[in-house]
Amino acid sequence: MARIAEVTRTTGETDITIKLDLDGSGRCDIATGVPFFDHMLDAFGRHGLFDLMVRATGDVEVDAHHTIEDTGIVLGQAFAQALGGKEGITRFADVAIPMDETLVMAAVDISGRGQAYCELPLPTERVGAFDTELAVEFFYAFARDARVTLHVRELAGANSHHIIEAAFKAVGRAMRFACELDPRVSGVPSTKGSL
Q1: Could you tell me where the beta strands, DSSP code E, fall in the chain?
Q2: 21 beta partners
Q3: pLDDT tens-digit series, residues 30-51
Q4: What are the beta bridge partners of residue 185?
Q5: What structural domains and CATH numbers belong to the chain?
Q6: Which of 73, 82, 136, 138 would you label with 151, given CA atoms 20 to 30 Å apart?
Q7: Burial (CB count <10 Å: 0-12, 13-18, 19+), residue 2
Q8: Are 103 and 166 in contact (CB under 8 A)?
């Protein structure tokens, strides 16, 4: 059973297509027009072992907000589609990623209820041209549209680049482990019988 998805979303602000294979090998082909964000999505896909293709164009002449938030929406929709009925998945996962002075934890529940809590105090407003507050906007949009419960918390950190990159890697790995098929799980891993 292939757990793949392709989702396109076009608005007056963005045009985004994402192809996702949950059971890939971490092959990524990312182009959003926001170089630092491309780097973060590449880290997410590679460390999650997802095959991920992202093509996004947006009104970056205004700023990168719409491109980043809408990419989170479309990536979330791709995960929801690829997971299908969620039969046999592990469902829960938590990961802590160290990166030099930084330590970031991500925990996920493929709950069917899209919500996120992010505690990422960033010491700078920018990493190069990237507005650092947009990292959290991405995670909120992603969790809502993937219909997962996501917690991302900085446990230690002093460098904004390291904190954001560790967060994307942690979320990628947590999603990988939560999406993995567990041969001991019969049906949907829920006492309610649905997620």
Answers
A1: 4-10, 14-21, 28-31, 51-58, 92-99, 102-109, 115-119, 126-127, 130-131, 149-156
A2: 4, 51
A3: 999 999 999 999 999 999 999 9
A4: none
A5: 4-179 (3.30.230.40)
A6: 82
A7: exposed
A8: yes
pLDDT digits over 75-126, tens only? 999 999 999 999 999 999 999 999 999 999 999 999 999 999 999 999 999 9
Question: What's CA 112's distance to the chain center, in Å?
Answer: 16
Is the pLDDT score of 139 beyond 80?
Answer: yes
| Distance between start and end Cα atoms, the chain | 19
* Cβ atoms of 22 and 83 closer than 8 Å: yes
Report how far residue 19's alpha carbon sits from residue 2's, in angstroms, rounded to the nearest whole number: 13
Inter-residue contact 127 to 162 (CB < 8 Å): no
